[in-house]
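Long-time lurker. I teach an intro course on protein structure, and each term I like to show students one example going from raw sequence to a predicted 3D structure in token notation. This year I'd like something fresh instead of my usual example. Would anyone be willing to generate the tokens for the chain below so I can use it in lecture? Attribution to the forum is fine with me.
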Amino acid sequence: MKKEIILFVGKQGAGKGTQAEVVSKEIGFKHISTGELLRNLKGSLKKELNLYIEKGILIPDELMLEILKKEMKKEDKIILDGFPRNLRQAKLLDNLFKITKVIEIYISDEEAIKRLEGRRYCEICGRNYNLITFPKPKEDELCDICKVKLKKRKDDNKEAIKKRLETYKEKTLPILDYYRERGVEVIRIDGSGKIEDVKKRILKIFKS
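-- Reply from a regular --
Happy to contribute to a lecture. Here you go:
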């Protein structure tokens, strides 16, 4: 069976991870998130990964590909998010698997900043919240479980967010043209509004 690999791309705060998860369930695809893969890694690859983490060194693209390859070989229908993040990674991935469709979830920089500044977490249980999007705490700025005041990460401030957005535009956005040049369908979806509304916009692609 030929593999179908759909890549979800979007700037920080666009909700691509959330949408990849909910859409994959609707259309019967396996959602592969590089973040989840790294957190759940075991065995020799986990030990190798820890060596880089302990030294504060970025994970080499080749190691990330090795981790991805192991997981992607098991599935025929995949929604991939979190990789590739730049042209080099896209080209390396292309040597192993062909992307069949790219979905870019688009929001403005202003919306991204607002959403990211709204992120909060509980320092006791680690649960994540968002004051702007989802999941919102039931009580303003309090953890639903621990009932303590939620914290804001230091890098979720306007200046740090702007730098991350510039990095996205410089490093990640060019992969969209890379795929277009190779005849891959690249579709932009409006990522504003409620999660359910964005999901419906994406699902229309698969019903047309």
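Some talking points for your students: The CA atoms of residues 142 and 148 lie 5 Å apart. Residues 4-107+172-207 form a domain with the Rossmann fold fold (CATH 3.40.50.300).
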